[in-house]
Amino acid sequence: MSFTIVEPAPARLNRSELAVPGSRAELFEKAAAGAADTVFLDLEDAVAPDDKPRARRNAIEAINDIDWGGKTLSVRINGLDTHYMYRDVVDVIEQTHGRLDLIMIPKVGTPADVYAVDMLVTQVEDAMGRDKRIGFELIVETALGMANVEAVANASRRNESLHFGVADYAASTKARMTAIGGPNPLYGVLTDSDGDGPRDFHWGDMWHFAISRMVVAARAAGLRPIDGPFGDFRDADGYRAQANRAAALGCEGKWAIHPGQIALANEVNSPSEKEVTQAKRILEAMEEAQKSGQGAVSLDGRLIDIASIKQAEVMVRKAEQIVAAG
Fold first, then answer.
1. Less packed terminus of the chain by CB within 10 Å, N or C?
2. Three-class HEC string of 106-162
3. pLDDT one-digit tens code per residue, 78-133
4. What is the count of structural domains for the chain?
5. pLDDT tens for residues 211-252?
6. What domain range includes position 245?
């Protein structure tokens, strides 16, 4: 273990994160009553320019008046390159009563972007005498942001999570893609020619590198890596496949842009009963080994060591979080 100790972000359940347009106030109560771990009220991309002041007012009323239960509640502000951003931050903090947990910052490109919002949030919180400090969710969705992802992840003590914004990232990198998330039939390899036989074409995952890089940056900074949206909300199998891929790479949650995606995200990002049982067996086996002075032990024909313990502890803690959330 390195002498450098990474302080983890607050432990929040973040399997599913539901996006709710701030201009659609009729959806707020349903979101609060739903099964998403986190809800963000969107003042940015999902809101037309003429509707942004109204969406901000809607979000403020919703934060104050709706019972959000044990959910993590976030607001996605507008970008730093717009004149809406500062008013989003000032009004939302000044006119709400402490229920807001997180601010989501879109299109983060450099550490200075995070610093600017941190300065503004800190000034408003101090002026209001707030003890509760709002955390930050950062969306990595540009080539600039990905190039600076490690520095961005460490730009503020408020940072809690990094999110992969696949649609804007595709636009920023000029990728030949118009869908939001999912595979691309152009991204694949053709097997070598073998006589006159047909050659097989194998699809690849064009987002693998970006998500993997974001995960490493997030984990190195003690943050939660979260996969972003999947646009075709009718394609449950496609959503599940993308969520499983992200989870396999280390993400612990995924966006839901439609209520129908929430259960899928929760399912994929929850350890199964079999996995939790096995994790508990590992911890029990290591406890017995330590009592007898052994540094490692085998279980079901497989070696168990300190790394196995860490993996098992993570899984058991996640299961406990899920139970506690009801």
1. N
2. CCCCCHHHHHHHHHHHHHHHHHHCCCCCCEEEEEECCHHHHHCHHHHHCCCCCEEEE
3. 999 999 999 999 999 999 999 999 999 999 999 999 999 999 999 999 999 999 99
4. 2
5. 999 999 999 999 999 999 999 999 999 999 999 999 999 999
6. 16-190+203-270
**Cβ neighbour number for residue 11 with a 10 Å cutoff:** 11
148 and 246, same domain (yes or no) = yes
Residue 264 in any domain: the answer is: yes
In a shared domain, residues 166 and 312: no
- Token pair 């610093």 is found at 115
SS (H, E, C) 270-285: CCCHHHHHHHHHHHHH
Any idea what the CATH number is for the domain that residue 235 is in?
Answer: 3.20.20.60
Distance of CA 92 to the CA centre of its chain: 22
Phi, psi of 97 (to 5 degrees): -115, 30
Listed in sequence order, the residues at least 6 apart from 73 whose beta carbon sits closer than 8 Å to its beta carbon are 38, 39, 40, 41, 63, 99, 100, 101, 102
122 with 264, same domain: the answer is yes
Structure tokens at 34: 């739903």
DSSP alpha helix (H) spans, 221-256:
236-249
| Structure-token match 């959000």, residue found | 68
- Nearest of 93, 82, 20, 21 to residue 51 by alpha carbon: 21
pLDDT, tens digit (0-9, with 9 covering 90-100), for 34-83: 999 999 999 999 999 999 999 999 999 999 999 999 999 999 999 999 99
Residue 109 lies in a domain: yes
2 within domain boundaries: no
User: Are residues 165 and 302 both part of a single domain?
Assistant: no
| Angle between helices 273-291 and 306-325 in degrees, nearest 10 | 130
**Are 298 and 181 within one domain?**
no
Q: Which of 243, 270, 297 is the last residue of a domain?
A: 270
Name the DSSP class of 47. S
How far is it, in rounded angstroms, from Cα 303 to Cα 228? 36
5 assigned to some structural domain: no
